[in-house]
Design goal:
Elements (H helix, E strand, L loop, with lengths): L1 E8 L3 H17 L3 E8 L2 H10 L5 E5 L13 H11 L4 E6 L4 H11 L3 E4 L5 H12 L4 E2 L1 H8 L10 H11 L15 H14 L7 H10 L4
Parallel strand pairs: 1-2, 1-3, 3-4, 4-5, 5-6
């Protein structure tokens, strides 16, 4: 029997407990699995655990997390990108309440998770099955994600870290004149990014306030 190290990153204690119980249920029903489980509820605690670890076998990653204290990580998506850099062998199961096509597509491209679960889709049995499937090396996606993968959306559309930083700064009221001091782009480069975002969101003629509002609705900030 091999012991698997598991990190659960979720700021809702009840959800974290559901994942923990699913892992324990899997260990109980199978002689193949034993889990060493750590639970954290903030980006700060998560990145500390990730950077200290030599290896983590499985990470449950909530996307809708409050930003880190230093604002380097604005959500679970930023954490997922960092996990892929630091621990490329780690299996990641993303969990989120977001069900917007573009948001899910963006997470698939940025993190490439081994499992992707929409919280409203899953029950206890499905969760245990998903964990077992991922540990065996096969991707596991809940029904909403599978339906989105079957639809034809603009595959060139991608909101990267810089785009999300721009959206975040606009959402907290940072003025355009000040953005180049916090975003590693010129004013022209930032304006070009904003135009592309508005184009992809089909709001070319709207102002920055409308861009921020739509980005919030889609879960990008």
């Amino acid at each position: 029997m091999q012991k698997h190290s598991v990190l659960i990153i979720d700021d809702h204690p009840l959800i974290a407990e559901v994942y923990e119980n699913a892992l324990l249920n899997l260990a109980t029903k199978s002689n193949e699995y034993e889990f060493a489980i750590t639970i954290v509820n903030t980006c700060d605690k998560a990145i500390e655990s990730i950077r200290k670890a030599n290896a983590i076998d499985l990470i449950f990653l909530d996307i809708n997390l409050p930003k880190s204290t230093d604002e380097e990580f604005l959500s679970g998506e930023d954490l997922g990108i960092e996990i892929r850099k630091l621990l490329p062998e780690t299996k990641i199961i993303v969990s989120t309440t977001y069900n917007d096509n573009y948001r899910i597509h963006n997470i698939l491209k940025s993190i490439n998770p081994d499992g992707f679960l929409i919280k409203n889709d899953i029950n206890r049995k499905d969760l245990v099955t998903a964990i077992e499937t991922v540990l065996e090396g096969t991707p596991s996606f809940s029904k909403t994600v599978l339906n989105i993968l079957r639809t034809h959306i603009n595959h060139d559309f991608f909101v990267d870290k810089i785009d999300r930083d721009i959206l975040y700064e606009l959402s907290i009221g940072t003025k355009m004149i000040d953005l180049p001091s916090v975003i590693p782009l010129s004013k022209g480069g930032i304006e070009s990014r904003k135009r592309k975002l508005k184009e992809n969101f089909n709001i070319e003629n709207e102002d920055d306030k409308a861009l921020v509002q739509l980005a919030k609705e889609k879960g990008f900030i």
